[in-house]
Design brief:
- About 35% of the residues lie in helices and about 20% in strands.
- The chain is an alpha/beta fold and about 160 residues long.
- It has one domain: Ribonuclease H-like superfamily/Ribonuclease H (Nucleotidyltransferase, domain 5).
- A five-stranded mixed β-sheet has the order 3-2-1-4-5, sandwiched between helices.
- The relative contact order is 0.21.
- The mean pLDDT is about 95.
Length: about 160
């Protein structure tokens, strides 16, 4: 089953700190979580993150500990068949996903050690135009929904 996902994160060149993750399954299920254990003091000082990501997050009472996110993401991705992961500019998203479990080698059996990159796929298409994301840019779940829409468009265009 295909899973389309996005993460929002703080990257300072040394660490990548998960802010939020959104996943949309091909069967219509959705998952969204905000990391309560992120370094919120640093994140809120980052002008771009404060203006584009933090302002869209749900109330802090809805945020979850990283261990809970890890368990829920595992259950979500392994609920059915072997997951096929897709993201837009997927490299960082896959690192952030992997770091939920520690190292990439610590990914649970059944979760791939790579994510298909929709952006790379677009390079091979004659029509590189994709539907615009109408709302919620930099909201991980809204972005994941757009990845699903863009993937459907791109794979029909072949």
């Amino acid at each position: 089953m295909k899973y389309f996902y996005d993460t929002e994160f703080h990257d300072d060149g040394h660490t990548i700190d998960l802010i939020s993750i959104g996943i949309v399954a091909e069967d219509g299920r959705e998952y969204y979580a905000v990391n309560a254990e992120a370094d919120w003091a640093r994140i809120k000082k980052h002008d771009w993150l404060a203006a584009n990501v933090v302002n869209q997050l749900p109330h802090p009472g809805e945020w979850k500990p990283k261990e809970q996110i890890k368990r829920e993401v595992t259950a979500f991705l392994l609920a059915d068949t072997l997951p096929e992961l897709w993201a837009w500019f997927a490299a960082y998203d896959h690192v952030v996903l992997s770091q939920l479990f520690g190292r990439m080698l610590d990914l649970p059996e059944g979760i791939p050690m790579y994510t298909h990159d929709l952006r790379a796929l677009i390079d091979y298409l004659p029509d590189k135009h994709l539907p615009q994301q109408k709302t919620g840019q930099h909201d991980a779940l809204e972005d994941a929904r757009w990845v699903q829409v863009a993937h459907a468009y791109a794979t029909r265009a072949r």
